[in-house]
Amino acid sequence: MKNAIEILLVEDNPDDANLAIRALKKSNLANHLLHLEDGEEALAYIFDEKNAMPRLILLDLKMPKIDGIEVLRRLKSDDKKKVIPVVMLTSSKEESDIVETYKLGVNAYIVKPVDFNQFVKAVTELGLFWLVLNEPPVEQ
Amino acid sequence: MKVHFEKRVLAGFIITIIVLVILGVFSFNSTQRLIDTARLLSHASRVISSADQITGLSVDIETGQRGFTITGDTTFLEPFTIASKVMARHLSALDSLTINNSLQHAKVNELRGLIDKQSVWTRYIIQVRNEGFEKARDLIAAGEGKRTTDAIRALVKNIQTEERALFRKGNTISSQHLQQFQYSFTGLAIAITLIIGYLFYNINDNLKARNQAEIKLKKVADETRDLYDNAPCGYLSVDSSIFLANINQTLLTWLGYAREEVIGKMKYEDLLSPESKATFIASFEEDFEKYKQQGYVSDLEFEFRRKDGTIFQVIVNSTAVFNDHGEFVKSRSTVSNNTERKKAEIKIKHLNQELEAFTYSVSHDLRAPLRSVTGYTQILKEDFGHILDPEGHKLIHIILTNAKRMGQLVDDLLDFSRMGRKELVRANVNMNELVQDILQELTAQENGRKLNIRVMPLDPSKADLSMLRQVWTNLISNALKYSSKKEVTEIEIGSRWTDARMHDGQEEICYYISDNGAGFDMQYANKLFGVFQRLHKMNEFEGTGVGLALVKRIIQRHGGRVWAEGKINEGAKFYYTLPQN
Fold first, then answer.
1. Contact state of A62 with B364 under an 8 Å Cβ cutoff
2. Which letter does DSSP use for residue B580 in this model?
3. Domain covering A7-115 in this structure, CATH number
4. Per residue in B136-161, pLDDT tens?
């Protein structure tokens, strides 16, 4: 399990992705991180049985081809995959997005702060929470 | 006035009838008396005349007998023969004329006796004369015959005198009477003429007034009809049979129907488009019950179908009319053409959707590059800070500050636009709790400041809790911000009910917050609530200029008003009202 992917970051904007990765690196959480650039890639990876399940998925909302909401819907409607914690990491503060993702069973919804320091703080805290403090169900 | 008139006419007719009856009775009586008198007169004259005849005949008999006695010539006996025959007829006439008067009748019988006596005497004389002149002459000279004749004459005179007395006694009419009758008759006739003249004058007057009133009434009716028929909106009524009882021309023109095709033949639902009709029928019973209970319905939207099948949008308002027993009698409805508004509504909806898409993309797409600007500038600072001189660090600081400020502006603007689209959910809001909660949160960040905050008991209000939280947060943080340069910050928060009469009967609560901060110049008071409008320099007080605009937007969505009073360096007071009914 040592080399398994711990965080799956799904983000189409490379600049934003780099910022997130840099923030996670600061807290030593980026060692087992995989960055995918859209929803299609994310679904292909997750539903490929050869790949181990990540411990946390950071999901952007607005992406080309398949957007974050659709990825979330497919994940949470799958019996095996729905146990993976999914955190929306997005720029959208729209009420409708928040409501819809929670209805689909998202585990957390984080609005990316514009300020970099705050962004680093937010990403670090959520990484620590889900990877260190949170107890996942025992894998069968 | 009218009652008065009717009483007068009635009184006039009654008086006329009474006078006519009096006149009739009076005339009848008078005529009757005239007839009686005439009859009496004729009776008396016939009695007198018959009596005269009898006297004459008696004299004739006497004269004839004497002539024969003297001459012995039988031709002298002729008057006697004739008179004897006629005498019986006259006696019989006199007898029947006096049959009703026993006294006169007795006299007539006495007269008959005397006449018989004369007749017997005369025949006796004639017989004696035939025997010899001297003996007859002696008999006549003895005077018996003359005595009989005188007795007849006296008796006749007596009968005549009595008859005249009877006539005088029976005749009740005198010339004075006749004159009185004439005067009275004339007087009454004049009275009737006057009364009828008066009545005619009155009735004619009244008829004229009625005619004028009718003309006036017709004019008013015409005007009302014109208002009804040609009003710029449709009118219709439905009676208890649910058929259309009335409809105005405007609506008929809109629909393309003739009045006769609609009244009593079509139901309200027949005016609707198939879709609208289905909805209407589906909830009719429930809606109609509510309509009857409430007495009105307002601003119902329907689709009407014209005769040619085309469809237009309407808004219907209706009041129900009940009879004394509370039963539904009819409806009074106005129909306004809603097509233009509906079009505008669709356009607005469209625009709102576009705006939503726009703000969504602003929210997402504008913040991402901003984050890159701050993020990578920060990385630049962290990774290459050691090779930058102070000027370089200053420039990096300027980039970061401005990017951060822009992020704040975008966020505030998004909040502002979101507040306009958010659904308003009214509930009872405990203002005291809300304000205390916010104060605790905000003052926690103000360490080391001397704060004197007084919160009066606040009236609870029906409003959207999350929106009001935003309002109080903005107002209180403003008060804290603009009074931060004072030694002691004085803030007061309170509320009161306003005088409803001043606001169209609207019951409302007015909330206020005052501070002793920087204040503002009243001549710019109208700029306070505009988006991105600021009355202070950025380096004096931070801010984006959206806070008060947001407050205004929220309060306006609640139907309230917001305003402010202030004086430079002496503080500001902000008011807002929330309607409660």
1. yes
2. -
3. 3.40.50.2300
4. 888 888 888 888 888 888 888 988 88
